[in-house]
Amino acid sequence: MLYANRYVRLPDGSGASSQSYLGSFPVTTTELPAAFESLLRAATAGRPERYQALMERIETDVLTPARQREAEETARRNLQGIENALRWAAQNLEAIPNLPAYRDLIDRPELQRLLANLLGASARLASCMQSAMPVDTATPSTESNPVAEERLQALLTNLENTCVEIGALLPESAQVFKRGHIFERETVALVKRLWFRTSDVIARLGSRAQFRRPAGWSALRPSVLEEERELAALGLPIAGGHQ
User: Fold this and answer.
1) What superkingdom heads the lineage (predicted)?
2) How far apart are CA 233 and CA 235, in angstroms?
3) What pLDDT, in 10s, does the model give residues 48-64?
4) Domain map of the chain by residue range?
5) Which residues pair with residue 187 across a beta bridge?
6) What is the pTM of this model?
7) What is the maximal distance between C-alpha atoms in the chain?
8) Helix H segments across the chain?
């Protein structure tokens, strides 16, 4: 805000200062409005050093921080937009091979052209990923040490057990949370955090060639989960503690 201070002599001979409002501008402003600059120039007429000092203070205390906040917000929105687009694209790509009659119709010329365009776009995205996150290959010099891998196995086992237990709690048939149950705010917040934690973990795991999900990976559920039944038949512990 810009105020003008004036010195006023009172009837009794004493002096006092008076202050009047001249103008202001939002703290989110990144460039000084011309109207405000004109008011400032008029208020400091004949005092160029005062005008310069106030302009420097406005630049340092208001305009520069506002530009930084705007740049950070723009970067955040851009990052979120790319993340959302990549997740959406990945979900749709994974779903395509499972569409009805996919194998019967994919050889049609019009679909082949679209598929070629899609693969071309994917190749451009893949080139960006390879430069930022090289694909790891197993070589004697890059093998993880046994202790670290045992730690990873333990963490993955705990995570799978947790997923199984959560899944067992939620169906209405379990009679734990009935239809229409209102969950506490803390529970909702934890689930929201899980949206991002699980996505981050899958992305990190997917940076290793052995862990990467293939096209149509959702169709592998029967064969992958068959391993649980094989472990159970051998009397070995499996995720969720079932045998």
Assistant:
1) Bacteria
2) 5
3) 998 899 899 999 999 99
4) 2-69, 99-134, 146-241
5) none
6) 0.42
7) 105
8) 34-43, 48-58, 64-95, 102-105, 109-132, 146-169, 185-206, 221-233
